[in-house]
Give the backbone structure.
Amino acid sequence: MKSLLSCALVTLACLVYPPLAAADSVVITADAFVVANSETFSIGSSSGEEARNRVASPVGGTAQNLHLIANMAPTPGAIVTACVRLNGVDTNLCATYTSTDFPGVRSNLVNTVSIARGDVITVHFTETGNQNSGANIRASFQIAPPTWTSDILFADGFEVPAPSHSAVITGEPFLVASGDTYSIGSTAGDEPRNRAVAPRAGTIQHLYLLPNLQPAAGSRIQACLRKNGIDTPLCASYVDADWPDPTVSTGSVNVAQGDVITVHFTETNGVNSGANVRASFDYAGPVNTGAIVITAEPYVPAASEIFSIGGSTGEEARNSAPAPRTGNLRNFYILPDQQPAAGSQLVACVRVNGVDTALCATYTPGTWPSPSGDNVTGVLVQQGDVITVRFREINGVNFGANTRASFTVD
């Protein structure tokens, strides 16, 4: 970093040009329900057995700032603990939630865990108080990259800030012989419902695949980044001999702000793989360009509302998450899976601590098939603030489409 001596000599530069932080990854789990003396796992979207709820981290860095929130007060006596789990072993990055913590957020801002690119991560939820918790618990944490590189210096002594690396995690589709499916952010299925708007420009690289079990002999799973309806060369494949390690792509693909992206999964050998496979990739970009958050794709009836953050949709209490760090929410986009019904109008807004912000987008039938968004407004959130996206139909007409939102956390 810039030395005190150089700051003393170039005071104006130190005042006008504060050092930029490298952008990071924000990981939001699904909302796990934990019964007495039991356990479950979640990463990115669903929750359940560990094998289906883990992912190869496409970025290296430091996992930190673990936060927990519940949709209701857990049963008195229930103790829910969530730990970031690395390569099948719980780390000390853990937090605990009990009935007396509701409606607040419980956090671990002290412990950190070093993660190498390709390490297998998940969040392990356990109940140790001999009571069904009766609550759904959601976790969020940050994977922070190194802030500075040490090999290149500006002439005045500034080290070069590291570029941003944001992890994007898909759902875990089950592939049948010669079948294909699509996933981005959470669910998996047909392409129109499983795509998202790229909320900022960047370079996508290090596409990893990891199934929940060894695929059947003779099968071959392939996953490719898909941009604007066309498969790109950024692909990874998985065969039975690759088990139990992840596989990873080579090369990279540039995306522009507003491009529509997804991951296209296919079984290319005509053999049922028998496995669920999850993908992850590094959405890299210049310094200070923001982590990526992608919601699920709610269906909103007439004059109704629904909430989503991370991987599920429904009531606000179950579909909110603590912000794992302070930052600005920006570059908000929405895109439905089909043309909305005539006369309908959908409004989606980022919501902070139960209040809609000015970061909103509106979608009407005439907008189709383009995305709608706001890349001007910025909303400051503090670490631990509770965030979600509120989707509303305001014209009294069934919107008739599933709509997914994406935004950045700068």
The first strand starts at residue 25 and ends at 33. The radius of gyration is 21 Å. Helices lie at 4-9, 11-16. Residues 1-22, 148-160 have pLDDT under 50 and may be disordered.
